[in-house]
Amino acid sequence: MKLLSRKAMCNTHGQDSSYFLGWQEYENNPFDEVQNRNGIIQMGLAENQLSFDLLESWLANNPDVAGFKRDGNSIFRELALFQDYHGLPSFKKALVEFMAEIRGNRVTFDPSRIVLTAGATSANETLMFCLAEAGEAFLLPTPYYPGFDRDLKWRTGAEIVPIHCTSSNGFQITASALEEAYQEAEKRNLRVKGVLVTNPSNPLGTTMTRNELNLLIKFITAKNIHLISDEIYSGTVFKHSPRFVSVMEVLKDRDYDKTEVWNRVHIVYSLSKDLGLPGFRVGAIYSNDDMVVAAATKMSSFGLVSSQTQYLLSALLSDKKFTKNYISENQKRLGKRQRMLVMGLQKAGISWLESNNAGLFCWVDMRHLLHSNTFEEEMELWKKIVYDVGLNISPGSSCHCSEPGWFRVCFANMSEATLNLAMQRLTDFVAEYSTANGHKRLHHSSKNSKKTSLTLPDKWLIRRLNWIRKIQKWLSRHLNWIEKIQNGC
Amino acid sequence: MELSKNPQLLSNIATNERHGENSPYFDGWKAYEENPYHPIKNKDGVIQMGLSENQICFDLIEEWIKKNPKASICTSEGVDEFKNIAIFQDYHGLPEFRQALASFMGRVRGGRVRFDPDRIVMSGGATGANELIMFCLADPGDAFLVPSPYYPAFDRDMGWRTGVQILPVDCDSSNGFLITKAALEAAYEKAIEDNNKIKGLLLANPSNPLGTLLDRETLTSLVSFVNEKNIHLVCDEIYSATVFKSPSFTSISEIIEEMGSEICNRDLIHIVYSLSKDMGLPGFRVGIVYSYNDAVVSCGRKMSSFGLVSSQTQHLLASMLLDEEFVGNFLEESSRRLAKRHEMFMKGLEQAGITCLKSNAGLFVWMDLRWLLKEQTEEAEIVLWRVIINEVKLNVSPGSSFHCTEPGWFRVCFANMDYHTVEVALKRLHAFARQEKLAISSTRYLRNHKLQLSFSFERYDKSCVHVRTLFHRTRCPLTPQYFLDISVPMVRAASRT
C-alpha cells in the first residue's frame, strides 16, 4: 500500500514550474547591493515594498496598538482567546470600508458577507472547495498567476480550463474565447462551474474593461455558473485611464443586485499587494450568497487570521486619514516606479503591454529575442536571463500564456538603484544579443555569468544541485555533532 | 434566486453536514452565546464550561510582553523589523520561530527529546494541522482509527474536506477508558472486513476529553501495532504542557527514540502540536505538524501555504519562546495553577456527590452523571444535557458529542474562567445534584408506595420542566398530597402542557 496520499505524491502543487524554480535560483545567489552585486536580482516576486515608511510612521503615532491596548486598557487576553471564525467585527468593518474606498466608494460592501482567510492563497482554495470538486472545472483567462494551479486544483481536485487570450487585442477576453474554453471543458468531460478572473490582471498588469466585464456577466448568466473576481491588486492602479472597475460596480450599475446572478459573483481580496503585507496572511472572500458565506466561514477554521494581526490592521484601516493618504501615495509611487522600468525597457529596445496601468509588474514582450517562436526557445531565453544576465523574471509559459516570448517583470520589490542596475544589465544583454549574427548562440561574456562552459542547466539539473546542497548541509550539521562528541560536549 | 434553491451550483462539501456543526457540542456554545453569564450584568446567564481554553496564565505572558517591547514590530523598539517581517511569507517560517518551537516542545518534554526545527511545518492552528496531515497521508475514502471518546471537531478537521473516514475504537469505563491492543485489533479487523482502507491511527495524548495520559507501555504497543500493519501514527499532543500531576507526560517522540529505527519505521510517525492550549493563545493560530517522514515534511510545507502563521505572530512568539527563563517559569507556574484549579474543582464536585474519571492533564474533567439518566441511552443523555444547559445554566459537553459509547459522561472545562465563576458553577452543580437526588428518592417513594398521579410524572418532559421550575420558585416540597391538589399552580401548569 502506498504510504502517502496521491496529493502528496503528485506535482499538482505546481512547484516544479519555472516560476518557482527561478525563485530557488535567486535564493541560491541573491543580489545584494553591498555584499553580492553580481547576484541574481529578484524580478519574479510581485511584492509591494514601496510604502512601508507610511505604515511605520502610522505605528509610531499609534503606540496603543503595539501594546495590545485599546483606550489605554489591555486587551491582550481578549485577543489571545479570540478564535471566532466570524472574525473581529471592527476588522471586518474597517476592511470592507477600505475596499469601498479603493473603489472610490462607488460600491459598498457588507461586513457580514466577508470571510477572513489566511491570505488570498487560502481564499481562492476555500472558494473552490465551496463551488467545485473533482470532475468540475473553472475557466481562467490566460495568462494567469502560476499559483492558481496549486490554489484551485491541488487539494480540491477541480480542474482549470484556459480561456486563450492573445496579444492581437492586448490579451483581452473575447466572447469566442469564452465559448471555446467552455466547449473544450465539455470535450474533456468536465462540468464548468464558473469563471475566475484576476482584475487587475496578474501577470498582465491591466484593469479589465467594462466591455470584458459585461461579456463575463452575460456569459455566466447564460451558462448559469459562478464568477470569481480576484481583485487583490485593486489598490495598485497607478494610471486611472482607464480606471479600475470592479465587477460589483458593473452589477450594481446594471441593477443585477435583484437577480440570481448576483449570488453567483464572488470577490477575493487580500492585503498582501495593496498594503505590502504578505507575511501577515490576510485574505478575504466576499460573497453575495448566504450559503457560500456560511460554508466558507466554517472552512476558514483551517486558516484564520491571527487575532493579533486583525487587531493591528483594524486600527490601521479604521484611520481614514491614513487610508486616504496611503492609497493615493502608494499609487503615485507605483506609477513612478513603473515609468522607470518602461524607460529602461525602451532604452533596451524592448516593448511591453502598453495598457499596463496596475499591478506590481509589467508584461514584457521579448518575442523579437526568440530564435524561433516556440516555448523551448522561450525557456532558453529565460535561462540566459536568469543565469547570464542575473535577473529572475517569470516566463510567460509559467503563466500558461499561449504565445511564447512574453515575460512578467516586477518593479516594486527593490530599490530604485537596483531597478536601474537591472535595466542596465538588460540593455547590455540585448545589445550583445542583437550584435550576435542571426540565430547563433550568444557568447557567454557577461560578468554576471555563472562561469560555466558546459551547456546550461535544465530543470533536472537544478533539482539535483539543490539535492546536493541539502546533503552538504546535512553533512555539515553531522560533522558539527561529531566534533562536539569528540570534544566531550 | 439564492444558491440555496439551486444547491448543485455548490460543491458537495459545501452542502453536506460533515463540518459537524450541528452537533450538540456546538449547540451548547450557541446557548451560551445567547445568554452568557456575567458576574454583575447577567448572574443567571449560562456559564461556559464547554470551551477548553487555558485562561490561567495570561498575566505571565502580558508581563513578558511589557518587558520585551522589541518582540513587537509595532513598538518603537521593534519597528526596525517591521518591513522584513511584513514581507516574510516563506512557508518555511522564520528560522528563529521554528527554533523557538522546537526548543519549547523539548522543554515541555523535560528535555528528554530534541526536536529538529527543520521538521516543523506551520499550519492554521491544530485545526489546520490535523487537516493538513490527513491530506498528506490519506486519500478520499481512506480511513483512520481514532479511540473514542474523541474531540468532536476531529470529524471536521480530519474528514470534511479530505474525504477521510474516521472509524472509532470504542473505549469505556470498564477499564478507565484505556485503549487496549485487543480493542484496536478488533476495530482494525472489522474495518478491513467492511472493506475500509486503514491508513493510520490518530491518538490524542493527553486525551481530550478524558484528561488522561497514555503510559509508556501503551504507547510502545501502539507503535508496534502501526509498524506491524504498516500504517501511520498521528499523535496530537496539544495538551502536553497541561499535565499538572504525576504521572508525567511521555511523548511519542521519546518512545521512538527508545525503540530505535530498526524496530520502528519513523516514516510512520507524526506529531500535531499547537500553542492554543499550553499557552492559552488560540487567537494566534499557531499549529504545527512535526513529521519524521521527509516526504511528509516536504509536501506538508507546500500545503502550509494555505494556513501560514502570521509573520507578526511568529516574530513575537519566537522571542518569547527563546527566552529560556520565561519558558521555565511559565511551564512550572502554569502546571501549579492548573493543579490548584483542578483540585478546587474536584473538591467541589465531591461535595456535590459527583464523581469524575481520575485525570492529571487537560483543561477539563470527565464527569460521571450516569446515575442521573433515566435509561442508559444517548437520548436520555441529551435530555439530561438540555436540562443542565437550560435549567442549571451550565454549558457542559455531552459524551455522545465525543462519540462516547457509554451514555452519561460529560466533559466539563474549568480553566476558562476566573475563580469566582468556578465557585458559582460549583454551587449550581451542587444544587442540581441535590435536587436530582431528591427527585430520584421521591420517585422511588412514589413507586414503592404504588401511588398514582393524575398527570404523568415523566421526569424530563415539558410538564416536569414546568414542575421543576415552579419548585425552584416556590420551594414547595414535592409531596404526593401536594400533587393531587389541582388548585396548586404547578399542577395547573402541568395539566396545561
UniProtKB/TrEMBL annotation, chain A:
Q: Which GO terms describe its molecular function?
A: 1-aminocyclopropane-1-carboxylate synthase activity; pyridoxal phosphate binding; transaminase activity
What highest taxon heads this organism's lineage? Eukaryota
Query: One Pfam family this chain carries?
Result: Aminotran_1_2
Among InterPro entries, the record links this protein to: Aminotransferase_I/II_large, Ethylene_sulfur-biosynth, NHTrfase_class1_PyrdxlP-BS
EC number assigned by the record: 4.4.1.14
Which keywords has UniProt assigned to this entry? Ethylene biosynthesis, Fruit ripening, Lyase, Pyridoxal phosphate, S-adenosyl-L-methionine
This protein's pathway reads: Alkene biosynthesis; ethylene biosynthesis via S-adenosyl-L-methionine; ethylene from S-adenosyl-L-methionine: step 1/2
Reaction it catalyzes: S-adenosyl-L-methionine = 1-aminocyclopropane-1-carboxylate + S-methyl-5'-thioadenosine + H(+)
* Swiss-Prot/TrEMBL GO biological process terms: ethylene biosynthetic process; fruit ripening
Q: Which cofactor does it need?
A: pyridoxal 5'-phosphate
Occurrences of domain Aminotransferase class I/classII large (ranges): 41-426
**Which principal EC class is assigned to this enzyme?**
lyase
Record-stated family: Belongs to the class-I pyridoxal-phosphate-dependent aminotransferase family.
Assembly and partners are described as: Homodimer.
This one is known as 1-aminocyclopropane-1-carboxylate synthase
Q: Which organism is it from?
A: Carya illinoinensis (Pecan)
